[in-house]
Amino acid sequence: MAKRISLTRYLVEQQRVAGHIPSELRLLLEVVARACKSISQAVNKGALGGVLGSAGSENVQGEVQKKLDIIANEVLIEANEWGGHLAAMASEEMDGIYVVPNRYPQGEYLLLFDPLDGSSNIDVNVSIGTIFSVLKKPDGDRGVEESDFLQPGSHQVAAGYCVYGPQTTLVLTVGDGVAMFTLDREQGSFVLIQENLRIPEDTKEFAINMSNMRHWDEPVKRYIDECLQGKEGPRGKDFNMRWIASMVADVHRIMMRGGVFMYPWDKREPNKPGKLRLLYEANPMGWLVEQAGGAATNGRQRILDVQPTQLHERVSVILGSKNEVERVTSYHSAL
Ligand code: AHG
Ligand code: MN
Ligand code: MN
Could you report the per-residue pLDDT of 259-298, keeping only the tens digit for each? Predict the structure, then answer.
């Protein structure tokens, strides 16, 4: 039987052999993975663990919080605050940043996360996940501030997601390609399944919430319309459609077999640049997709080049198979 490589060993080798990550970052990623294991346990228990349903509160973005949104947020904070590797954290579920309390040593990293992605799927037993991004705190002796988090995605030093689906799968990059691990529940450890994940450059599958079609901008309408015309249309091939409504699960499918995912700006709320959040959804996913040979833009610009101005800033997202993302992006500049 082939030797099994645990996440721990993979990270040690990334640190020791490949020299890609300092030990502090290795510890950070181990701790995030441990937190994901714990969230996976809670997700698995479902109603038996009393974790389903609404928490009866709203987050800073005006979204109703589910019990699991809050549980996952707490698990990630409790796991990460005492290790000495972090200066502060930011999350979809917290208004401002969470500075590591004084009683613990402060590290040099900043951790951002969407603790529970796909909240509308929790109670219906459909795949959900956790998305995370790691930045370095800018140099300087002063304490950490919210503005330290406002770095473009190209500054990320690690990014990943964990899908809680039929399997619990962790997908990770530290800037040297993308690796995928599956949780072995008996052993309690993540096991390496595949290194150097590659997204095919071409695809016949798109993911978008079609119910918003009437609100889309022209370039998105044109792209989807051409796909829908199938073999008889300008693309000369039939397309398939998937929409899970958990970005994590839609992106994971694209990691496995290609495709293009879009949550574009639309006319419902014209003042918002999009629905998805730049710092803890689009940036980590954008970097993972690029590391796997795909592309990620907001229609006009590479997502990783967007300079954030707010912690919970939103962005239009087009990501996945390179040639399709480039096509949709070119339709935006054609106008
Ligand atoms: P979250 O549950 O973290 O708020 O994110 C949900 C996001 C994303 O995961 C998904 O792609 C999208 O919202 C689904 O939105 P619609 O329900 O509008 O399709
Ligand atoms: Mn989300
Ligand atoms: Mn969320």
Answer: 999 999 999 999 999 999 999 999 999 999 999 999 999 9
State the pLDDT at residue 284.
99
Q: Is 88 in the pocket of ligand 1 (CB under 6 A)?
A: no
pLDDT attached to residue 75: 98
> Mind listing the domains of the chain with CATH numbers?
7-194 (3.30.540.10), 205-333 (3.40.190.80)
pTM metric for this prediction: 0.97
Measured CA to CA, the distance from residue 181 to residue 185 in angstroms comes to: 12
Neighbours of ion ligand 2 (CB under 5 A): 114, 117
Q: Which residues of the chain have pLDDT under 70?
A: 1, 335
pLDDT value of residue 1: 63
Q: Is the CB of 319 under 6 A from ligand 1?
A: no
